What we know:
- The structure holds 3 protein chains of 3 kinds.
- Chain A is α/β, with parallel strands linked by helices.
- Chain A has helices at residues 44-51, 74-79, 97-102, 117-130, 146-159, 176-191, 203-209, 232-240, 294-302, 324-330, 339-343, 350-356, 370-383, 400-412, 430-445, 457-463, 486-494, 505-514, and strands at 6-15, 18-28, 33-37, 59-64, 67-69, 82-85, 164-168, 195-199, 212-217, 220-226, 258-267, 271-279, 283-288, 309-314, 317-319, 332-335, 363-364, 367-368, 418-422, 449-453, 466-471, 474-480.
- Chain A has 3 domains: 6-240, 3-Layer(aba) Sandwich (Rossmann fold), CATH 3.40.50.300; 246-331 and 416-515, Rossmann fold, CATH 3.40.50; 342-413, no CATH class.
- Chain A contains 18 helices and 22 strands.
- Chain A is globular.
- By secondary structure, chain B is mainly alpha-helical.
- The longest helix of chain B is centred in the C-terminal third of the chain and has 27 residues, at 216-242.
- Chain B is globular, with a radius of gyration of 22 Å.
Amino acid sequence: MSEYVLELRGITKTFPGVRALDQVHFQLKPGQIHALMGENGAGKSTFIKIITGVHQPDAGEIYLNGQRVEIKHPRDAQRLGIAAIYQHVTCFPDLSVTENIFMGHERIQPGTKRILWKEMHAQAAALLAELGASFDPKTQMGALSVAQQQIVEIAKALSTNARIIIMDEPTAALTKRESEELYRITEQLRDKGVSVIFITHRFEDMYRLASQVTVFRDSRYIGTWGIDEISREELIMAMVGREITQLYPQKDAKIGEEVLRVEGLGKTGLFADVSFTLHRGEILGLTGLVGAGRSEVCQAIFGIHPYDTGKVYLKGAEVRVKNPLHAMELGIGYLPEDRQMQGLVLPWSIAENITLSAIGKYAKKGWLSRRKEEEAARMLAEKLQVKAKSIFDPVSSLSGGNQQKVVFAKLLTAELDVIILDEPTKGVDVGAKSAIYEMIHDLARQGYGILLVSSEMPEVIGMSDRVVVMREGRVTAILDRDEATQEAILEAAMMKKAPPDLPHKAVSSKTRRLV
Amino acid sequence: MEQRALMSKKEFSLKRFFLQWEWMLVLIFLLVNAINVSLSPYYFNYDSLRDATMTFLDKAFIVLPMVLIMILGEIDISVASTVALSAVIMADLHAKGVPMEAAVVICLLVGTLCGFLNGWLLVRFKELSSVIVTLATMIIYRGIAYMILEDQAAGQFPEWFSFLGWGYVFGIPFILIAFAVCAIAFGLLLHMTTFGRRIYAIGNNPVASRFSGVQVDRIKIIVFTLAGLMAAVTALFLTSRMGSTRPNVAMGYELDVIAMVVLGGISTAGGKGRMIGAVIAVFLIGFLRYGLGLINVPAQVLLVIIGLMLIAAVMVPNLKRKRSAAANVRKEDAGIKEAI
Amino acid sequence: MTEKALKPSTTSANIARFREAGLLGVIIALSIAVQIRNPSFLTVENISDLMTNTAILSILAVGMMLVIVTRGIDLSIGATLALSGMISAQTVGAYPDLHPLLVILLGTLIGVVCGAVLGFLVAKGGVLPIIASLGMMNAYRGLTFMVSGGKWVSAHQMPPSFKEIATGSIWGVNTLIAIAILIYLCFFYFLNHTRTGRQIYAVGSNPESAAISGINNERILWLVYTIMGALSGLCGVLWVSKFASAQGDTAMGYELSVIAACVLGGVSIAGGSGKISGLLLGAILLGILNNALPLINVSPFWQMAIQGAIILLAVLINAVVKRGVERNNLARRKI
C-alpha cells in the first residue's frame, strides 16, 4: 500500500498550439487537504480534468492507492471514488436536489426498476443534514443559492462514496459567511478520511484549510511545501516566478485633467456605491476577487447593462450611456473579459473583426468601401504587430496573444477618451503579456484614460498609477502607487467593511439606503 | 522585433472558388433541367418556361428577407399567415368599397406591422425563441384572417390589379422583373452595406456584436419588419394571379420558403450563406415543380420531394461537420477552457 | 450554522403550484361564466362530449410534452396522424373482419416508424427539430395523399367494429377517454418513477451535464420522438374511427393545438420542465374553450385567433413571472 491515495507522475498534455501541462507531479495523502495554487493559465483546470477523466494525458501515470489506473471517462473517475466540485456548478436546475445528488446512480428497485423516491429523499436528507444544510431535498436545484448548490455537489460526491474530492475555486463566488460554512464542511470531510484537493486564489483559504500546498506555474510543477514551511512572499515568488516589477515597463505618461468620474454607481444585487475618478494618461487599476463586481461596473459604464443609481461624468459633463454604440460615440471603449465570446467573431478574418466596431467609418451612406476598410485594418494590424500571413486569416487561427491584439485594434478604430480593459492578459503567454503591457503604456502616453481591470495582483501593482479595490460589490479602498502593496490590496479585497475615510462619502450615503 | 507587412490581397484559389455550395446548386439546377428535357418534349420551350416562373415566383419574395432572418440565426414561420392576413384585409376592404389603390397600400402596411410585431416581441422578450414567438403569431394572424372573411372568398379586383400577376413588360413577366429588382436590392443590402455586415456579425456571435456596438435589437426588428413587408408583396402578387383570396391562402408557404433558403446554403445555425444561393434554389425548386408537373407527377409527390430535399440540405453539411468535430472540440478546449 | 445563508428559497416551487392553481381557477371561472350564458354547458351529455373531444388532444399533448422537455418541437404529428389513420382505414376497408386491437396496433406501428425516422434525423443527424419536423411533415402528408390516391375513406367503407373503437365504452367509460386515462397513468409512472423518464428531464435541463453523468443523450432524443410518433399513430386510428372518415388533410394544423395545450399546461419551451398534472389541466382548458365558444355563440371562425392569443399570452406571462423571480433573487443578495 502506498502512502498516497493519489499520485500523478510526469503528466503532460498538449492541445493544438498550447502545452497545457508539462511533466507535472502531484501527491495526495489520505485525509489531507492539499491546496493547489497558481496564476490563471498555470494549468490547474486541465490538471483537474485529467484526474476526473474529461481529458486524457499524452504522457504520464496516475496511481490510486499505489495502483496504476487509467481514467478514460468521467464515469471511471466516479467508479474510482474521485469527484470534482467546479466553480460554476454543473447541475440540473429543473430537477430536485435529491435527483441532482443521485443522477447516474439512482436507487432502483431490482425487479420493477422503479425509482425508490422515499429511500433517495431520506438518504439525501441524511447527507445534507450531515453537511449541516437545512434545506429540503425536494427543493428544485435552480432555486438554491450558489453556496447551497455547492453543498449539494458535495453531497453528491459523498453519495458516490468518493474518497478524493477536488474543489475548483469553490469560494470564488461565495460571501465571507458562506466561505466559513464551506471551510467547516471541508474540515468535516477531512476528519472522515476524505482527501481534498482545494484549488484557490485566496491565501486566506489556503492558510485556513490546507496542510500542504503545491504550486504550478506556466504549465509546470514548481514544488510542494508544508504550509508552515513557506512564507507568503516565497509562495508568491513561486507562483509568479519573477520579480514583480521586471515585466512592466517604466511608466512615463503625463497625467492630465480628469476625463471620467463615477459617483455612487449602483445596480441592485450586483454593486453599490461605486465612486472613482480617472485622468488622461492615467492607468487606474480596478481589482478584487472574482465576483466582486468589477466587470459589472465596467459593463454598466459601457452601457451593456444599465445602472440603477449614481452618475457618470465624461470630461466634466454628465452622460447617461444608452448602449455600447452610444458609449463609443461618447468616447468610452471597452475590451471585454472573454475574448472569444465577447470580443471576436471567431470565423471572421482579422480585417473584418478590426473594423466591426466602427464599420460606419469605412462606408458612405451605408455602402461599404472594402478598400478603405482593408487599408485601415492592415495599418492597425501592422501597428500592433499582429502575427499572421494576411489580414484575411480567420482570427480563430491566431494565438491568444495575437487575438487579443486584434481586439485592441478594434478599440483603436474609434475615437476614444477612456479605454476600459477587462482582464487584458487573461490566457495570454508571458511573451505576449509584455507586448500588451507596452501597448497599454503607449495608449496612456497618447492621453487616453485607462481603467485596467485585473485579478492578477502583480499586474495591478506593476501597471497602475492608482488602484481601486472592490469587495462584494463595493469599493473598499483607493490606493496610490506607493500604498498599493500586495498586502494592502489583499486586505482591502477581503476585508469586511469599507473604511470610513473613502472619498465621495457624501454621495454614497444616499445610495447605500437604496440597496 | 521583426515586422512583416501583412498581405492585403486576398489569395485567389480556383479550387476553393469552385467548391462553393452555389456551384453545387448550379449543377443540380442543370441536372434538373436535363432530366426535365429528357422526360418531356414540351419542357424546353421559352414561352412556357417564362410563364412557369409566374407560378412559383410569388413566394420567392419572402425568401429574400428569410435569408436575412436565418443568417441572424432566427426563424420566422409566421410569414404565410402574414400573407393571408394582408391579402384578406386588402380584399375585404376593397369589397367594402375602399379604392383598390388604398387597399394595396393598407395591405403593405398590414404586412409590415405583422413583421414589426414579431421583431418587437422577440427583442422585448429575449427569453423567448423566434420559433415560439412566430408560431404563436402564425396562429393569430391566420386566425384574424378567418375572423374577417370566415369561409368566404373575396375578389373582383379592378382590371389593372391583375397586371401584377399576369402582366408582361417587353415580353417579360412583370413578376419576374419585380423579383429581379428585389433580389438585387436584397443582395446588395446583405453583401455591400454595413447593415448586411452587421447581420452576419450577429448571426456569428450576438454577444461580441453587442460589445462591438452593433445595435442587435434594432437590426432584428428591421429584418423581421422587412419579412412582413415582403410577405405583403407576396400577398399582392398571389391575390392578383388568383383573382380572389381566402383565409386559407398560402397555407404551407413558410415551409417552401425555409426549404429554399436552407437549400440555398444558408446555415440554420446562422452567420453563413449568400443571397445568390437562395435565389438559385428558388428557380431550382420552381423548375423541378414545373417539370414534374408536365409529366403528371402529382403535387403530393412533390411535397415529399421538397421535404426530403430540405432535410438532405441540412444533413449534408452536418455530417461533414461531425467528422471533424473531434478535432474541433480539442481545439476549443485548448482555446477557451485554458484561457479561463 | 447560519440559517439565513442556507435557508431554502422555494419561490420556483411556489410558481409551479401557483400555475396549476391558476389554471384550475381559470377553468372553474370559465365554466361558471359559460354556464351562466348557456345552461346546457354543464350537463352530463355535454361534458362527456367535451371529454371525448379532448381525449385525442390530450394524448398527443403527452408526447409533445416529452419532445418539448428535451428542448425540441415536433410539427409533423398532424401528418403522422393522417398517414396512420389513412393506412388503417384502408386496411379495415379491405379486411373488414380484422380485430380492432390489431388495427390499433398497426396504426401505432406506423407512427413508431414515422417518429423513429424523425428521431434519427434529430438525434443522429443533428438537424434542428423545427427544420426536421417541417420536412417530415411535408413528406408524411405527401405520403398520405399518395397512399390514398387523393380519395377519401368514408363511413360506409368501415366496418362497425372499427367505428366502435371510438363510440364504444369500457366499464361505462367511453373508449377514447379510457385510453387517454390509461396513457396518462402510464406516463405519469414512466416520467416520475423510472430512470429513463427522469433522464428525459435531465437531458432537457442540461445536456452537457447529462452526458457527463453517463446519460446517452442521442438515445433519449430518439426515444422521445419515437414515443411521440407512436402516440400520433395511435391517435390516427382513434381519429379516423371517431370521425368515421380518413382524408388526405386529416388533422392539418392540429400540431398547433397540441403545442398550445403544452404551453398552457406550463411546459417550458426552454426545456427541462413540465408536469403531467399541469399538462392535463392545459389540455382540459383548451378542450373547454373549443367546446364552450360555440355554446356562447362565438363564431367558430374566431377560435383560431383566440387560441393563438392564448398561446402568446401564456408564453409571455411565463416570461414575465420568471423575470420577476430573477429580479427578486438578485435583490435578496446583500451587498
